[in-house]
Amino acid sequence: MELADVPRHRPLAFDKMESLIKEMQDPETGVPVRSQKLFLTVIPSAFMGYDLVEWLMERFNLDETSNGECQVVGASQGPWSRRRNPVDSSYNEKPRLPQVLIFEAINLANQLCQYGYFFPVNDLKNLVLKDDSSLYRFQSPYYWPWQPSRVSGSSSNAPTLGPDNVEYAIYLVKRTLRNKQRHGLEEYEQEALANLKKNLSAKWDFITMQAEEQVRLAKERKKGDKIVSDSQERAYWRVARPPPGVSSGLEPCPVPVRSRPHKPKKRTIHQLTREIEYLKTSLDRTRVKTSIALDALVAYAETFAPYDPWLTPPQPSNPWVSDDTLFWQINSPLVEIPSEKRVQRWALSIEELISDPTGLQEFTSFLRKEYSHENIRFWLAVMDLRRSSTKQIPKKLEEIYEEFLKPGAPCEINIDGATAERVAEGLRSGSRYALDHAADHVYGLLLKKDCYPRFIRSDHFQRLLTEGKNVHQKKAKFFNFGGQVRKKPGSTSGTSGTAAGTGAGLARRRGSDRSLSGSAHELAVCAVQPPRPPDPPAHSHSQSNLTDIPFRDPLEDDTADVLPWESSSREGAYGGRRRQDSAADSGSSSSDVSGAVCERTRRLPQQSTLDGGLRGAPPPLRRLSAVEPRHLAPLASPPHSPRPPRPAPRPLPPVHPHPTPTISVSSAPDDESADSPPGTCSPEEPRSIAQSDEPSSVFASADATPTDSARAPPPLHEGCSSLVEIGNEMIASEEHPSAVASVVLGGPSIESCEDSTTSRAISDSKESDRTKSSEDETSSVRKPITQEASAIDVVMEQNPVEGAAEPMRAVAPLAVCEDTAVEEEPPSRASDRTASSPSDIVKRDSKPDLGERKLRNDICPWEDENSCESDAPFVKTYATLGYL
Amino acid sequence: MAADTAVSASPEETLESLLREVEALKQKLEEERQKLNDVSLSSIAEKLEPITFPNLKLRRVLKGHQAKVLCSDWCPDKRHIVSSSQDGKVIIWDAFNATKESTISMPSTWVMACAYAPSGTLIAAGGLDNKVTVFPIGGDEEPGVRKRTVATHTSYISACLFPNTDRQLLTGSGDGTCALWDVESGQLLQSFQGHAADVMCLDLAPSEMGDTFASGSCDRSALVWDMRTGQPVQAFDTHLSDVNGVKYHPSGDSILTGCDDSVCRLFDLRADREVARYGKDSILFGVNSVEWSVSGRLVFAGYSDYTAGAWDAVRAARLCVLCGHEHRVARLQRSPDGTALATASWDATIRIWA
User: Fold this and answer.
1) ipTM associated with this complex
2) Which chain B residue is nearest to residue A308, measuring alpha carbons?
3) 3-state secondary structure of B26
4) Tally of CB atoms within 10 A around B165
5) How confident is the prediction for chain A on average, in pLDDT?
6) pTM for the complete prediction?
7) pLDDT of A282 over the 80 cut
8) Looking at CA atoms only, how far is residue B354 from chain A in angstroms?
9) How many CB pairs under 8 A join A and B?
10) Interchain CB distance below 8 Å, B59 and A272
11) Pairwise CA distance, residues A316 & A215, whole Å
12) What is the distance between the alpha carbons of residues A87 and A106, in angstroms, rounded to a whole number?
């Protein structure tokens, strides 16, 4: 049996086509059918192509209401793009007639023609509908496809797609019995006839008899009818048995046969019971309202629109369009520096984070630094387990047990009793899903609710965001243009020299964090900042920092703790570290690596984006805060750092194991004016770094504390956080700097260092006055600055906590004030110096910074705005999706 | 329970009472679902701005198959495609360069399913041979050398995929079942029985956990399965004909089905009901395959009328018709990063739109 002969289910499309054809043939409302005169001959029962197209368009225009914007895309413009006269006029009458309608009408007409519902009168070779005056004729329903077979020879009554061979044989024999000229067989038909004669020899008598009979009957018909029925029959076979090499619309797929028994199979009791059980459980299912489901759908679409290449053109370009694979390089599964957009996506949900290999890696390394990565590792191990080959299951199960579950295991995870019981049960069963429950527990309670939010709020994450800012340019540099692209950022920095420098400094800070932790090469690169005004003291500090580097990690570790506040401080640590790094960078200029230059230029662009980066990242967080108060604080704080209590870090004596003060101060200025310290590395530098580490942790506390303060932060932190928050609010509301200053004052008081407070207050007031005057211009600039300042302040505060000399603090605040003041206004510099006589370093740094800062001002304002705008939708989505 | 009563009562009676119970429960279920049907999609859509649809254009044409292309699958590397065709050939393409990388001959014609493994180093294919064969690719030798038969069904293979791992294979078959296999040993890990007719399509939930998958069948229903228990979790049966394509929304909260009745339907898993329909009168032919854009805002459907259509999922309006194929569009799939759409057609070509 041929494929076409197999009884099968008739697709719904045939019902639809048939009803449509019936509508077309309606004498009143259908397609006008009449005898057409062609030269001297009359062609009965025919219609013209454009009439049909017209009719179809009318027919479907009715329900084309919602479809105005639909477009047609094709390899080449089809016939629908140029309609002939008769239709053109109507087209003009309906000016909004969408292109798609014309296309659709022609496409549909072509389909109907392919299936043989009508056929071209003069040209059976090509079964296509032309949108012109060519003539077509409807097929008789008898010859429609998918009819029950009509010949006694066929075995089944089910509808078949095509006719069977007996019918075909009769038809061919009939043609041989008639006028050779008009009914002669084509070559392929003769072949087919020969084959059929061989295969159906048993039935051949019957076939010839039938054929003779039909020919005899046909002779009795009127001529007009005869022409029509002959053409119909011929068209039918043209469709059902197309000439070789011509594809047919009726060509069936061998499967599914889909011929369904008329009665559904009798179901067994077992099946029914199962169905009932299923239905009962379905009844108990909790459902959400449709509105909620639809809102979620809409929210998801809005959230992810930026990541949908069809809605938001990808940056730098869609490889398929531009033939440039840079987009893929930037977004390859594992990259050193993920693009900002990609990092932002991680903030949408933990699923987004974990499904991205780079995200997973960053998350894991973040948790590793927190010493809490056993959870993610356990979860990954279980995920791996359930997807493992059957053979490996017992072994992997055992390994997981040994590493994570056994009492006293090296990475024992913390699960409750009930889960533990189920784990034990699962272990006994040895199934690949044995540990799913525990994994769900770890994922849902620990990773999702605890680790993930912390990661998103962490400085690590912020740094990633900032680093990702200029990935495109960087990549472009590396892959395409080499020096040229590099120049771009550089030139901007050059023209607005210091501005770029400062921005770069900040960016570098973030980058440097990584460099410190990881690659020495990077560090060196950073260090090789282009020449800045030499700053001897800074060097020395930075050098000392370098020596101290080993200390940093222990510090972090200490901070890393489960306690909420501690965690917050931990987050801060990154910031602190960054600071150090920057300091280190400035200090260690000795190594003049060409790469360093590259690095620097690369980062320069960042500077401008820095503000945006900081702020951009936070928005999602802020949004979060709206949802969850807890999140609020951290988010807000990074962008506009409040100036909370600033203990004096600087004054810290070198004796202190982590002599933060001087270093931190110096580093801070560095960051802003990265350029200031040229590459000279003084021996002190290493030490300063270590110090900065400490402050960093403090800084972290400032950022993070607010979040965690809700839980149970130690009083000191709480004070800080509250201050910070206040500061944030003020800044955010564009309040006067003086107000901020007052807030700052409050901070020290909490710490009970009056001396520092007073001095600081003075400096603050000065600063505020100055800033006032230039506030408008600098306001945008100020935010980042203040932020940094605040960070510094926080750092300072912590120092005392860690045992730094309290008296030093008094000095420190001054220094901080200076920095901020300097940043905001050059003139303030002098005053600052006087105020902060103790901190020589600060002065020096600030001096160079002044110029830079000014420059930066130029850039910053737009950047801020831009970043804010771009981030806004992102934030929104996050709120809706992640936490609803 | 019902099973216990079945033993005591006469079989006929039990069967009938059970059938009645099924009907009653179904009705109740429908009522429950309707209770929460508070808004229609159109009311939500009114608040939304229509999106500006990108100018999708034909970017590549992959020519090389000698017969109908029945299935295709993107490689996770975003530029390779594996496709299978009626003449029993499986071709691995570098779609970006529009070149063939290798050709594998299968033992039977009508290779209706093919899939890339997540690692990109294995492909699976099967069809009328009732088997799925896994081929390692990327090595030096011919891909056919180290092939391995992993899955065996009692009828043709209509769909297969690797569920987030190279080590397992999920198949759907004309015998009405789906099955999960261990690739290494060819062992059946789980069988999924519940469809009353040929399974036509499969899709895996996008979640990392990958606990569920959806299947569409000629019994006019789409089922959502729990991979671990082998039981159907949810069923959606508002289709008028075969379900030819099914696809999870990228959020994993709903599934989209493409039906032979030429309508695509959106079923929300949490609302447990159909929430949207994408279809119109002028489309007469069945949907063979469906796809989402990354954001879930766009729906793509490949039709038997030689075209593919793009729909605004929220406004349920058709945005675009992609034409150019000269035969039915059997399969359409977005590239993993959403930058391109591949359509495989019975006209023996695969076209890439972006």
Assistant:
1) 0.91
2) B294
3) helix
4) 18
5) 62
6) 0.66
7) yes
8) 6
9) 325
10) no
11) 72
12) 13
